[in-house]
Amino acid sequence: MRKEQLQAFAQQPTPFYAYDLALLRQTLAVAQAEAGKYGYHIHYALKANANAPILAEILEKGFGADCVSGNEVRRALEAGFPPEQIVFAGVGKSDAEINFALDTDIFCFNSESGQELEVIQELAAAKGKTAQVALRINPNVDAYTHKHITTGLEENKFGINLWELEELVPRFAEWPNLKLIGLHFHIGSQITDLRAFENLCGRVNEIQRWFEERGRTFPHLNVGGGLGVDYHTPEENPIADFAAYFSIFNRLLEKRNGQIVHFELGRALVAPSGNLISRVLYLKHGQKTNFVILDAGMTELMRPALYQAYHKIENLTSDLPTQSYDVVGPICESTDCFAKGIQLPETKRGDVVAIRTAGAYGEVMVSEYNLRDRVKAVYLS
Ligand code: LLP
To answer: Are 261 and 366 members of one domain?
Structure first.
């Protein structure tokens, strides 16, 4: 969304999320075309943004859904995703969530432990059903990203460790209500050093061969998501480099005949099309810095407080010469800070700012802390 388009919002009550559905559609079309070159399937990771108008666009493009809670499965079904295109991952699925997913006949559980497999077996048997499962394996591959969004290292809680497989795999003989159909991997998020995916391919190949040596083949390989976006210069790179991303897997992943390769992308599909629009409440001249105090805070966009994440901030209503500011929210926490020492045009009370690239892991992570009102959303088609 260009600055002029965002300026159209300047009169509305703030804060709110503004979504650029035209950019979303373009992004989805590029992702679909690039994945389509190799016959890859994309499941959209609902955890990034589960707003109905966004899901409607994604559904229309024919993507599946990647869910990590019973409520996400429910939301995907409500949005119209067919059950046979829904996968359910997550390190701590409750019995109620597993039962719900069994009742709705989803495509596959991405299972994270032997104990969880036992529970799925027991619950599926009680219903006289067979659950399709994929093993989420922790491949111990570095994603070269922020430590809080790295998931594929042994120190992370996710997935089944490689050394557990020897003992685990024969147990499928005791689990008649489980059908092992695939392997699943996800090494982290906001990955911009694409060598991480090259390393992942190498590891998946080794693991697949390990299984084949033991007589196990899989119709499905799910290599997760994680493709990063450009938070620093969103206008130059509004669409992630899907061509480079998928071509790595085409080049390096050993896909067997007839095997279907699945991806679970969240951020790269939706982050650039969302902006958090906020009004300047006050200016405060501190000893070392000038503070811009916004009417949006960490309750509306938690990423900077949680991961020191950078989001570009633009003043939509001032063209004055720039000054250095710390941009903060109204919440009673020192960590409620969007940016430190950034250059903005001279800013005054009443100015409207856009916090860019906030379409993923923005609205979904909203909190009511300080009893804040729920932030609204507008959609620009
Ligand atoms: N699949 C699984 C199993 C996942 O855990 C995730 C994200 C994805 C797919 C989608 O990853 P993506 O393509 O969006 O990178 N709140 C953090 C990000 C947490 C990501 C969690 N897992 C943030 O704001 O940076």
So the answer is: no
Nearby residues of 226 by Cβ (< 8 Å), 6 or more positions away: 143, 145, 186, 187, 188, 189, 190, 191, 196, 197, 265, 267
Pick the atom of ligand 1 nearest to 365's CA: 16
Does the residue 155 lie in any domain?
yes
Same structural domain, 245 and 281:
no
* Residue 1 in this model has a pLDDT that exceeds 70: no
Which residue do the tokens 């926490």 mark? 333
Atom of ligand 1 nearest to the CA of 189: 15
Q: Whose CA is nearest to atom 8 of ligand 1?
A: 225
Among protein residues, the one with the nearest Cα to ligand 1's atom 5 is 186
Å from CA of 331 to ligand 1 middle: 26
Q: Are residue 115 and residue 232 in the same domain, yes or no?
A: yes
Q: Of 274, 283, 247, whose CA–CA distance to 263 is shortest? A: 247
Q: Which domain holds residue 317?
A: 272-380
Residue 279 zone, left/alpha/beta (φ > 0; ψ -120 to 50; rest)? beta
Over the stretch 234-290, which tens digit does the pLDDT of each residue have? 999 999 999 999 999 999 999 999 999 999 999 999 999 999 999 999 999 988 899
The span from the CA of 43 to the CA of 224, in Å, is 9
Mutate to test the pocket of ligand 1, among 88, 189, 301, 307 (most ligand atoms within 8 A of CB): 189
CA of 291 from ligand 1 middle (Å) equals 32
Task: Answer yes or no: is 176 within a domain.
Answer: yes
The model's pLDDT over 163-197, given as tens digits with 9 standing for 90+, comes to 899 999 999 999 999 999 999 999 999 999 999 99
Query: Looking at the whole model, is its pTM more than 0.85?
Result: yes
Report the pLDDT value the prediction gives residue 139, as an integer from 0 to 100.
Answer: 86
The residue among 269, 295, 319 that closes a domain is 269
Instruction: Give domain status of residue 351, yes or no.
Output: yes
Q: Are strands 274-285 and 160-161 parallel, antiparallel or unpaired?
A: unpaired
Looking at the structure, do residues 254 and 376 belong to the same domain, yes or no? no
> Using a 6 Å cutoff on CB, does residue 189 contact ligand 1?
yes
pLDDT surpassing 80 at residue 153: no
What is the chain's mean pLDDT, rounded?
Answer: 95
> Phi and psi dihedrals of 284, rounded to 5?
-135, 130
